[in-house]
Design brief:
The structure is a homodimer. The longest helix of chain A is centred in the middle third of the chain and has 21 residues. Chain A starts with 8 loop residues before the first helix and ends in a 6-residue tail after the last helix. In chain A, the strands form two sheets. In chain A, strands 6-5-4-9-8-7 form a six-stranded antiparallel β-sheet. Chain A is of the alpha+beta class. Chain A has two domains: about 60 residues, Winged helix-like DNA-binding domain superfamily/Winged helix DNA-binding domain (Arc Repressor Mutant, subunit A); about 170 residues, Beta-Lactamase. The model of chain A has no long low-confidence stretch (mean pLDDT about 95). The first copy, chain A, binds a DNA duplex through helix 3.
DNA sequence: CACCCGTCTTCCACTGGACGGAAGGCGTGG
DNA sequence: CCACGCCTTCCGTCCAGTGGAAGACGGGTG
């Protein structure tokens, strides 16, 4: 094309979707154009089509938002709602026993995505959002997912910058590597104040026939936490879920 | 273009997404091509790009499924996860009080889409799926949404074929019209065995500043149902939710 | 009121991304 | 062995897409 030869129409449409984020779920046409790096007239045309189909919706304020039709299609993702449907009963059981925050996440590239969470009203407040992303190297679920990720993924995470969230976040590649080996050995992960100074999480893997596909965790206040007591509960829930997915829990 | 001049690239990409449905969430390349009505080579090219972005994923069986990235973007839909986040606590309260199925739906065109449901283990089994669609003229939520839909939408639904699910489904346009007027008057809808012969649902509107945006309902076994007793509960929940959305509940 | 600023919408002549038929590889099973 | 369905790649043609420019719109300011 004229502006940026080599850029396909499809990639431009996808760039428009990329422009939306949890932090900015409503955008004007101009904002959309700037974020996607496309001329206004181009965006105007493409957006009209997305609007007609229902991928985008336009509010009374003139801003564009993600449309329900796209949510509907997204709900067909096996690793999204599909996984959630199977996991929810197990997560609820875990919640009933502990009355603590229960989280379910999968790995997407070099980050994790939260698929579902049950936030206990009496439990520690956690700032995770369903559909939100987070780094792999700090949380309990992240450590489990990273420990069972392909070697290539692990290397890229270990090589890349490891953001420090608290004084206890493991940012040394060597230590993180040993940490992951330990997670594989014992079959669960503990993240003690590595994300915030008030929370501790214990996570276990969820296995399908193709390997570890998700991670389940409990997030509790660190001062009333007993990882050794919580681990068997989370692991048991992970096994139940693994079996439901046709996997072979260890 | 050559095959079907007038068809845009974007519409073709969207047609590929349309090919997926709850009944067939995993498709081969050929199936995808047939469903979208596009040549195989065209689909092959477009799908490769969707795969790279994460809109689609490919399983070990070679079939394509909706990818997590699309689920993630879809989760930004205000009428999808956004609404669910606000509604869930209210729905849980309603469930705690009744221990019956609680459902939340919005209107999308001439149908409704289920946004969330809480299925009581002891409650009547309902075959609704989160992300699934249904006709507007039979269910409790549907009647509420239809009763408060723009006149143009109502006319099109009344004109179109009204599928009969049971002997009690209202399929006469005149009767349905009176039914909708009654729903508006009393502020709630009752669907007594109009979908299945074992279930009854009571639904109430959810109002945001722009009008009725969703409907909340209880679905119970018809033989132990007392609509008059349930209505106030559902209406109260609807009002709480309306207020949370900045609406003015009546 | 006139002015400016940012936003949105529409128009049009050019061009390169998209097209799709065809041919080739791959696995299955009759 | 061949036939069948599926997937992948190639290449010459051509129309959908492009983006600058011009104009409408809307709100805030002097």
């Amino acid at each position: 094309m004229r502006g940026q030869p080599g850029r396909t129409v499809t990639s431009r449409v996808l760039a428009l979707l990329d422009a939306f984020s949890p932090a900015s779920p409503a955008l004007t046409l101009s904002e959309l154009a700037r974020r996607a790096g496309l001329p206004l007239s181009t965006v105007h045309r493409r957006v009209a089509e997305l609007l007609a189909w229902g991928a985008l919706e336009r509010g009374g304020d003139g801003r564009y938002r993600i449309g329900l039709r796209l949510w509907e299609v997204g709900s067909l993702a096996p690793r999204g709602l599909g996984l959630r449907e199977v996991a929810l009963p197990v997560m609820e059981d875990l919640y009933e026993v502990t009355h603590e925050n229960v989280q379910l996440a999968v790995r997407q590239g070099l980050e994790l995505v939260f698929i579902e969470r049950i936030a206990g009203r009496r439990a520690v407040p956690v700032r995770t959002r369903v559909g939100g992303r987070f780094a792999l190297h700090a949380t309990g679920v992240g450590l489990v997912l990273l420990a069972h990720a392909p070697a290539e993924v692990q290397e890229r995470v270990l090589a890349g910058p490891l953001e420090r969230y608290t004084a206890l976040t493991v940012t040394d590649p060597g230590r993180l590597r040993r940490c992951l080996a330990e997670v594989r050995r014992v079959g669960y992960a503990v993240s003690d104040r590595q994300v915030t100074m008030d929370a501790l999480s214990v996570a276990a893997p969820v296995r399908a026939p193709e390997g570890v596909v998700a991670a389940l965790s409990l997030v509790v206040a660190h001062d009333r936490a007993d990882p050794v007591a919580l681990a068997p509960l989370v692991q048991a829930a992970g096994r139940v879920l693994s079996r439901a997915l046709g996997g072979t829990p260890r």
